[in-house]
Every structure is written in C-alpha cells, then in structure tokens.
C-alpha cells in the first residue's frame, strides 16, 4: 500500500505540473506597445512647402538697338567687355555689353537685277543732268557777255534802259538755273549711292578691323552679375535681354503655397526656413499676393497657388551662404499656442464619428474619446478627454483592444 500511494502522489504531482504549465502558456500575455505622455508645451501649425531665394531687385540689361553684340565673357585679349558671373559692376560706369552695326543681309537674284538696273538708270540721269549743267553754263556765259555789252551801250546812250534790264535779268535767271541744275546733279548722285549701297551683301561688304561706330551698354545699377543671358556674339533685336544684375545681399524668399493654406497666413507671421544645407533661419511674412495662379504639380494635379514673400529675421551672417535662386523649405506658422495640451497624432484613431486614443489604465488599454483642435503632422491640440500626464498608446495595432493588457516595450 505505501508503495502504491507513493506512485499515486508522484503521478498527481506530475499531472499538476503539466496542467500548470499548459495554463501558463495559454494565459494571455500583455501586448507590447509604445507609450507617450500627454504634456503641455508649445505647439504650432505650419504651412510647409518648397521655396526659393531671389534678389529683391534684379536689373535686366537689354539691347537698346538692333545690332551685333560682342561676346560678353571671353579670355583676355579679345574684343568686348570681358564680364563674368559674380563680377562687381558700378552704375553708369561698367560696360556690360558692346554692340556693333550688323552686316548687310543677302539679296535674292530678282532684287539684285532690279537694283542693278536702277543704278544704271541713276548713272544715265546723272549724265543727263551734267549735260544740262553744261548747257546752262554756256547760256550764262552768253548772258553775261550780253550784259557787259548792254552796260557799254547804256553809257553811250546807244541802248534803252529796258534792254539793259533784260540783259541783267537773263544773267540772274541763268545763275539760278545753274545752281538748280548743280543741285540736281548732287541729288541724283546721292540716289545712285543709295542704290549702290542696297546692292551690298555679306559677300562683298568691305571688311573693317575697327567698327566705325559702336554702342557701349552701361550697367544701370551697382551690384554683381547674376546671370549672363546672351553670352556669345550674336545679332540681336532691340529689347533682347543680355545680363542680369543685382545685389546678392538683398535677398528675400518666395514660396508658392496652396490657396487653402494662404488664406490662413497673415502678414508678419513667423517663418522657419530650413532645407538649404545650413542651420534653420527665422523669417517673417511680408506679403501675400492678392491673386493666385494655376500650377500643375509633378503628379499632374492642377493646384491653385498663391505667392508668399518672406524676409529674413535673423542677421545676414546666418544666411550669407545663400544666393539667388537657391532652394529652401519654408514653414509658415498659421496658428500657435505657447502652453497647449498636445497628444501625438500617431496615437489618434477614429471611433465611430469621433477621435479616440488608447490610454494606459494600470496596465490595461482604455478607449478614451478625445476632442482635438488644431494639429500639425506630429501633434494635435487636446480640447477635452485627456489631462497632462496621461499615457497613450502610439500606433495602436489590431491586437490592442479596450480592456486588454498592455506593457511598455523596452528600449523605447
């Protein structure tokens, strides 16, 4: 009997151990979660987008006339102003471009034949007028001889005063006719020269080492060369852009924000500028354009954008590394609170038609409805439902349920 009882006791103990082990493995374990503490602190809502820097006042130098502009940037020794991007210029002193007359254009065959015929006609007209000059000179010589004869006869009373006046009139008339004929010769020679000039083309134009005239285009303002638009030698029309000039230290930032964000932005709103390769810079909004414009995004979506202009609030030493047309990222504050109660956005989920969180209630998850106000991409303002010091579950999975056991994941 004692031996049987011993075996029974040992078997019962083994069964109890196995049952307790199975119960321990089957017992639900707490879900490991990340927890965050609801706290008061500064919170702000920003409108974020890409922007770019630009010189506030850019002066674009244009060609004042049609002509050939010489190469602007070139090695020393060549003809031209030798200007490069970044060079300093002085207002009304520095030559930024040099322009010369253009060569005549080509003439088609029919136009050339017509012009050559007109030149021949002009030569014949000149010869005709020169012959007319010779005829009037002969008539003038004869009238002067007659006038001298009339003077002699008038002294001896051998002619009448009327005949004397007639001889005098003929001299004056022939002198005027001769002057008119000579002027006609000059006119026809000028017409012939004009027609001959129209026959010139690049093939027969007389080469000239030094241009007979040129136009020196001066810088309209002091600063630095930001961009050389027309670098190579070329024939340009009046108004063609040549060079951009500005002061690199007179910078501002422009950003094209969505119109839904722009309506919440006020002049003077603080701005954080980063994403340019240096430390964040403080700025402020100085202008929100009253008109928007359509812009197509990289995904092909049509968006209404509004241009916002931002000035730097930090001293120039913090942003002198920036230049014209540099990319930056702007964060324009649309709302802020210095001591607001905030909960991480990653803790929120929809419970019916309202927001809710899982709060840590002594190791168990408790569904707590919350009312939120403003929010950004990290934090949401808590209006009701939570208090400072409450701990909430971040990124709750489908394993977390109301009343379920939870435990804080170590190392977070």
From TrEMBL:
A Gene Ontology cellular-component term: cell envelope
Record domain Multidrug resistance protein MdtA-like alpha-helical hairpin: where: 127-186
One matching Pfam family: YknX_C
Keyword line: Coiled coil
YknX-like C-terminal permuted SH3-like domain location: 340-406
Localization per Swiss-Prot or TrEMBL: Cell envelope
Entry-linked SUPFAM superfamilies: HlyD-like secretion proteins (SSF111369)
Coiled-coil ranges (or none): 112-146
Main localization of the protein described in the UniProt heading: other
Keyword Lipid biosynthesis in annotation: no
Protein name as catalogued: HlyD family efflux transporter periplasmic adaptor subunit
Source species: Bradyrhizobium niftali
Source species taxonomy: Bacteria, Pseudomonadati, Pseudomonadota, Alphaproteobacteria, Hyphomicrobiales
